[in-house]
Amino acid sequence: MIKKYFTNFSEKYASKWLVFGIDLTIVLVTFLAAYLIRFNFTLNFDLSQLLVQLPFLALIATFSFLVVGSFKSVIRHTGFTDVVNLFRAIALMSLTCISLVLINRFLGYVKGFTVPFSIIIIHALLSFVVLSASRLIFKMGYKYLKCKFQSTKRVLIYGAADSGIVTYNALVSNVNKTYQVIGFIDDNPQKNGKKINGIPVLNSKQVSKRYVETNNIEEIVVASQTIKSKKLITLVEELVDCNIKITKIPPIEQWINGELSAKQIKKVQIEDLLGRAPIEIDNPNLLNEFRGETVIVTGAAGSIGSELVKQLSNFDVKELILVDQAESPLYDVQQDLKRAGKHNYVAIVADIRDSLRIDAIFQKHKPTMVFHAAAYKHVPLMEQTPYEAIKINVNGTKILADTASRYNVKKFVFVSTDKAVNPTSVMGATKRMAEMYISCLQKESKTKFITTRFGNVLGSNGSVIPLFKKQIENGGPLTLTHKEITRYFMTIPEASQLVLEAGTMGKGGELFIFDMGESVKIFDLAINMIKLSGLRYPEDIDIKITGLRPGEKLYEELLANGENTLSTYNKKILISKTRELDHNKVKTQIEELCITNRFQNNNIVMKMKRLIPEYKSNNSDYEKFDKRVQIYKKAKGLLQTNLENHYGNL
What we know:
By secondary structure, this protein is of the alpha/beta class. Helix content is 49%, strand content 14%. The chain has four domains: 2-146, no CATH class; 151-268, 3-Layer(aba) Sandwich (Rossmann fold); 291-457 and 489-516 and 561-594, Rossmann fold (3-Layer(aba) Sandwich), CATH 3.40.50.720; 602-649, no CATH class. The strands form five sheets. Strands 10-9-8-11-12-13-18-22-21 form a nine-stranded mixed beta sheet, sandwiched between helices. A seven-stranded mixed beta sheet has the order 3-4-2-1-5-6-7. A two-stranded parallel ribbon has the order 14-17.
């Protein structure tokens, strides 16, 4: 209400013509003051001549103000540009006066009429100082009254560089909310102890819990674009207990028309606390790689698939084909592309298990590249239904890969998971089998088959982050399977960039893995999410340990036993050297498993364990089969040795 009153008052009574009148009055008063200064504050000058000069000065000042337009600025937002305009107006007025005086001296239009140049110079200086000061006084008075009668948020800005100054300007000029910047935080020793716009620059050690509470700080805005994740984590852990809000400005490229708005300042997200710098892949070859290609993306409505579609739509592809069996999510992706002004795409509702349907799609659209992201990925659910896991993750991949090979597709990029490494679950085992089948098919196909393997994706469907967010919204508790469980994390855009990069650099047969830095302890991540929500652990929201789920690992791996890596031109992307397979034998066994796949879970899992030696179930009913498989393999090996010895003796 108070804010509305001040806004209406300033718009109604502080119009540009009122400002014009005040400026003109100041110019005339300072002209009289210039005479008094010139004659040592005595009246030893011709008052009648002064009265004649004032109307001429008023006309000249009016002309100057109208030409420059200095009176049109909004006084409460006076800035450097407005002061420059005042200087231009005063300079024009003074030069015009000097010119008219000189012309009158030479031509003698008005006898006895003259203005000493010293008066003009003194008047120019006085006018500029008083006009600038009047605007500054009005601005300070307006700000004081606004802060006094309206609630003000007291903030600190982290970063005293250019982005910090831009953030300060965005906050103080915000019309919807009043901010009072108490200080800047910057660890640069050259800036420590200095002031910016009268606001002190502090180092991070000075900003303690006591300092925040003493100065009633309500928010810290992180303006630094180069702040390290560990520093941000420390800031959150140390200060978020003070009931303080920690926000962050977006990257410069996301600013609206190159300018930062206070509305763009958002809460620090859990993605900012990954503990490593975001991975950015800048490969100009991507433009050439996808130009003129017809690209199929399966699982196009999923987390990774939809981001792949989004990024691929920015390339000059001939046609983008979106395949997914989930109708509603696929429709949403289609609408997003329409809103983005994209036209070269086709959305198709189809099931990758339907070989006739997939063949018809390939026959009609003749794709040159395939990105296969469709899969079942929920570990506990797939542990209960191995039949479905094999049907989608193995047989679906097999059908798609066989079709791509039959139609001589250039490249087939398969999206795998770190759960395929030394699998402990049915889901991980099926993804490993899909990797193995693609590796076998590479030996007999012209298509270049490429596999990408990475960890958990932040914000993806079924990931822990959306689950924690919902639990926080519902008041908790947060459910965690084990206090020591760790995971590798990456964002959806990072994962999609990796897949596209693999599609570019892959020559066929490679398995690309991603250097994801250090693994993240989920318990610490949960606590940070609680704190970022402005809540306290365990007072406001507790964390409940539920125990490992069937098939779930305590920690994930990126390399299996017997695997090592080769480097690429991007130090964050490595090529895994997998163990050698008996390709004909493995391919035949996978094909037989897909054909004989039935609802008999025990038989299916036994066959999978025989096919994948490193598959050892964890916290699952299928652990009982691990010993049987070992006994079976020993017996088989012993039988084979005896046969070889027998026939060797003949």
